[in-house]
């Protein structure tokens, strides 16, 4: 598998970087195409390469088409970030994103690289379908549909209206205008995910790891509909997946133990519908989570960790928002709060989300505050001795600390689908037992009291917003949630701990502007049909 990644990425470079166009829409190496796309193994390698394009493996998480990883928490009301040169994340967190911010063009471009490669494979498999058995053609077209839809969901979530690239264009045809989000949903995202759900099976084709399945496609369709505020179809698609779960309980489902979802020894468990795959073992195909977001861990050799940059702080407001086991926060007067053991009685979800200084046990050893807790602010580290856990920091032995984190980055979980169903039901005013049953399951696993019955629509939306914040912490969803809910300015501009602690910068969200990202200026210069830019830019 590692050799395939290298082979295919090298092969694709002749496609993507041989043209002077800002976005390569027409692979020029026709000889390479004619030589390569002839056998089943060729197409297998092409699909492997397509997924390899998605994964960021650089420390700044801008090198992959499905970029960001933990940096989305920096963009939201979750983390503070120290390094001003880490772009575009630093400028986003301060409300200073603009059309020439560093790397904003790269992440935009990388998404279209993935789409272009998907379109190339699509054209080749359609032209040569008669040479392969039907199941293999379905597998290839299903994977193409899933990845292309995934990229367009990310594009439209950040930029709104974008060019609709559904085939290989000539340079003369490639100066496309921006298409409305509704058109991209109708012509690309939903048809591609429907095709993927139809063509793919519950178990991965040929037992290949890291590729889409039927449940991944249906689950991503739930997210697409929710982001489009199509609540009826959100519910319909979620129910489709729930029925599939009943038929395949060993392959799809809700894990009883929260920590088990993120364990390196339990990857590809039934709750994870899709994840970006990473692997350790000296291949340099691992992630860089520990390098930039981690701390040192007891029981691991120094050479296998970084954790000394002290570039990130989990915001006190975020930590304080978590309820204790009685369902109330400290500010709300939780009776479970013990000032002598202030981090006790928080439940297994909280304890699996954070390493807690002088409280957590890691590899059978105490996670000592003075030895392991890292923070931008020494005072904040003292008051809030918590660092990111959730399986990202790889508690197993590693060869070294660069690109050797085993932990996958989860893109979609079954619990997310359940919560999206509950949200859609709430938005339609259909708050019934099915909504409360989902929240009960989530809260029971988290180890905190159930939510009270009889909530109004606004009360239930607040409940769901909070539950998503805690349940999916450090999974790259919060930034997208607060923007689509229209509360980003409220929660980000309401942060005051950046005044108390020396974080080196302040959180800002500019309402009426930062709801969308700017189309990169370099893209507009190359294609004036992309003008005008998004509001405020």
TrEMBL record:
Residues 270-537 form the RagB/SusD domain. Pfam families: SusD-like_3, SusD_RagB. It comes from the Bacteria. InterPro entries: SusD-like_N, SusD_RagB_dom, TPR-like_helical_dom_sf. Keywords: Cell outer membrane, Membrane, Signal. Residues 21-226 form the SusD-like N-terminal domain. It is found in: Cell outer membrane. Its main location: membrane. GO terms for cellular component: cell outer membrane. Belongs to the SusD family. This is RagB/SusD family nutrient uptake outer membrane protein. It comes from Phocaeicola plebeius.
């Amino acid at each position: 598998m590692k050799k395939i990644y290298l082979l295919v990425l090298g092969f694709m470079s002749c496609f993507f970087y041989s043209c002077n166009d800002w976005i390569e829409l027409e692979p020029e190496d026709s000889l390479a195409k004619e030589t390569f796309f002839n056998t089943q193994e060729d197409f297998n390698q092409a699909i492997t390469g397509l997924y390899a394009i998605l994964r960021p493996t650089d420390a700044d998480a801008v090198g992959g088409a499905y970029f960001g990883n933990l940096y989305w928490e920096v963009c939201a009301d979750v983390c503070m970030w120290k390094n001003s040169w880490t772009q575009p994340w630093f400028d986003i967190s301060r409300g200073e994103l603009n059309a020439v911010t560093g790397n904003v063009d790269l992440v935009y471009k990388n998404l279209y690289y993935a789409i272009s490669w998907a379109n190339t494979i699509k054209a080749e498999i359609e032209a040569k379908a008669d040479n392969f058995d039907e199941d293999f053609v379905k597998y290839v077209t299903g994977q193409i549909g899933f990845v292309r839809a995934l990229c367009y969901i990310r594009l439209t979530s950040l930029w709104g209206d974008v060019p609709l690239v559904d085939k290989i264009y000539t340079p003369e045809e490639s100066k496309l205008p921006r298409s409305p989000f509704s058109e991209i949903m109708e012509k690309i995202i939903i048809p591609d995910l429907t095709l993927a759900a139809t063509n793919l099976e519950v178990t991965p084709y040929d037992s290949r790891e890291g590729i889409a399945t039927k449940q991944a496609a249906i689950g991503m369709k739930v997210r697409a509909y929710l982001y489009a505020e199509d609540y009826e179809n959100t519910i319909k698609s979620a129910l489709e997946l729930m029925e599939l779960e009943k038929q395949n309980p060993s392959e799809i489902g809700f894990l009883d133990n929260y920590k088990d979802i993120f364990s390196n020894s339990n990857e590809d468990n039934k709750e994870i519908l899709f994840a970006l795959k990473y692997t350790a073992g000296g291949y340099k195909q691992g992630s860089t989570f520990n390098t930039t977001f981690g701390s040192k861990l007891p029981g691991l050799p120094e050479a296998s960790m970084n954790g000394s940059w002290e570039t990130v702080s989990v915001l006190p407001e975020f930590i304080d928002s978590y309820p204790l086991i009685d369902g109330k926060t400290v500010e709300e007067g939780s009776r479970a709060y013990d000032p002598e053991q202030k981090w006790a009685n928080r439940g297994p979800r909280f304890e699996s989300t954070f390493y807690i200084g002088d409280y957590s046990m890691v590899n059978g050893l105490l996670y000592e505050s003075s030895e392991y807790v890292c923070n931008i602010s020494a005072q904040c580290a003292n008051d809030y001795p918590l660092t990111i856990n959730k399986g990202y920091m790889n508690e197993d032995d590693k060869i070294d600390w660069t690109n050797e984190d085993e932990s996958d980055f989860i893109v979609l979980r079954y619990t997310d689908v359940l919560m999206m169903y509950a949200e859609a039901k709430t938005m339609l005013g259909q708050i019934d037992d099915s909504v409360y049953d989902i929240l009960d399951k989530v809260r029971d696993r988290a180890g905190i009291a159930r939510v009270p019955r009889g909530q109004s629509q606004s009360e239930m939306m607040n409940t769901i917003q909070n539950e998503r914040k805690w349940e999916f912490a450090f999974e790259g969803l919060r930034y997208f949630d607060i923007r689509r809910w229209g509360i980003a300015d409220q929660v980000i501009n309401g942060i005051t701990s950046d005044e108390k602690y020396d974080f080196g910068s302040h959180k800002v969200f500019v309402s009426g502007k930062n709801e969308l990202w700017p189309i990169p200026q370099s893209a507009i210069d190359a294609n004036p049909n992309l003008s005008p830019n998004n509001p405020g830019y």
